[in-house]
Design a protein that fits this description.
Two copies of one chain form a homodimer.
Chain A: E1 4-9, H1 24-41, E2 47-51, H2 56-61, E3 66-69, H3 74-81, E4 86-89, H4 98-106, E5 111-116, E6 120-126, H5 138-148, E7 153-155, H6 159-162, H7 168-177, H8 181-188, E8 191-195, E9 199-203
Parallel strand pairs in A: 1-2, 1-4, 2-3, 5-7
Antiparallel strand pairs in A: 4-6, 5-6, 8-9
């Protein structure tokens, strides 16, 4: 079955929980870096980035993806694009690699879910008709939806896919494990890992 | 190559970061439940549990593992048991399953590391001579040790292996993803997952 990748992306006030640590401009650049790392990981497949408003700079910078603007809420915007053989990949997974995506797309099941921390769904592959429902503990919701539809569900076990960037502690995971743009960007902002007792992040300004 | 599993275990004041939420007795029982879940995941291999003091009740309850008492610091106690073909598995990984352990032990490399959150090393397989160094960001330390010894290192990518129970937020991961004793124990203590906005934990007392 051919696979298409759908990546929802929002650039207006992104990653608001990091507002105490990064300016809005920095958070926007962080969001773009993470999107680029995700795009690099899925580059072997047709990709559609669905945005809530147009970002011409982004479109002109990233050539191989298709960009769609849809101002409806996240679930509706994604469900409009869902068809059998769709993998929805969150845009804030900077540890994702081609190898992780390959392993994910090879996992058998009508629906395959890569869980994120705190009950999230970081990647979801639907080989049959399926409608996503993000927010409010989407992992358990997607489990129940698949069950109610009689679909065979598989959980994809990946640390790299589980780390979405949401709060400050997630930046430490980026600094420790990311090989892409996002780590370079944080380094440019002055972040570094200090290894006294537990490793923690600091920032030179 | 034959593999032996080594599990370090400490029952005196375990999981002290949970002291605000669980009594010492509850934390001890939690630690034992997690050890049981880990033991169930590695049950196809010879297992040595290395403890800092004797726990006769545990030894009499868990029959298939060998118990060794060694009061030296963690690294020394583990390194005494290290020989080529040793996998060191932390005792607080309640999401571990037989499948995860199988995939881990099949991963090629002189040294294979399953990272934990916050720079930890949750599982480490050494197929050549290697000395562990836990605490203070062991993931990066083990990377450097392997590099300095010219060993081929592989990172094992697993969400289930990455979740060690350290602070309160980790209990949510147990409630969402654990299939073993640890979840049952938390349920018995009154914990349940509330799904309003982000899922969070609550406890009926």
């Amino acid at each position: 079955m051919d696979v298409q990748i759908v990546i929802p992306f929002r650039l207006s006030n992104p990653k608001s929980r990091l507002a105490g640590h990064l300016s809005e401009e920095e958070r926007k650049n962080l969001a773009v870096c993470m999107l680029k790392d995700v795009l690099a990981a899925v580059c072997n497949y047709p990709v559609t980035v669905v945005m809530n408003e147009p970002y011409p700079e982004l479109e002109s910078e990233i050539k191989f993806a298709e960009f769609v603007v849809d101002s409806s809420p996240l679930n509706d915007a994604v469900n409009t694009l869902m068809k059998p053989g769709t993998a929805v990949v969150m845009s804030d997974l900077p540890l994702l690699t081609e190898e992780v995506v390959e392993r994910f797309l090879k996992t058998e099941g009508d629906v395959v879910i890569a869980p994120g921390r705190r009950g999230g769904t970081n990647m979801l592959l639907a080989r049959k008709h399926f409608r996503v429902s993000y927010h409010y503990g989407s992992f358990l919701k997607h489990l129940r939806i698949a069950e109610s539809m009689g679909l065979k569900l598989a959980i994809f076990d990946s640390f790299y896919a589980s780390v979405d960037v949401d709060d400050y502690s997630d930046l430490l995971e980026v600094m420790l494990h990311c090989k892409g743009e996002t780590k370079k960007f944080l380094q440019k902002l002055g972040f570094k890992v200090i290894m006294e007792k537990e490793p923690y992040l600091t920032r030179d300004l």
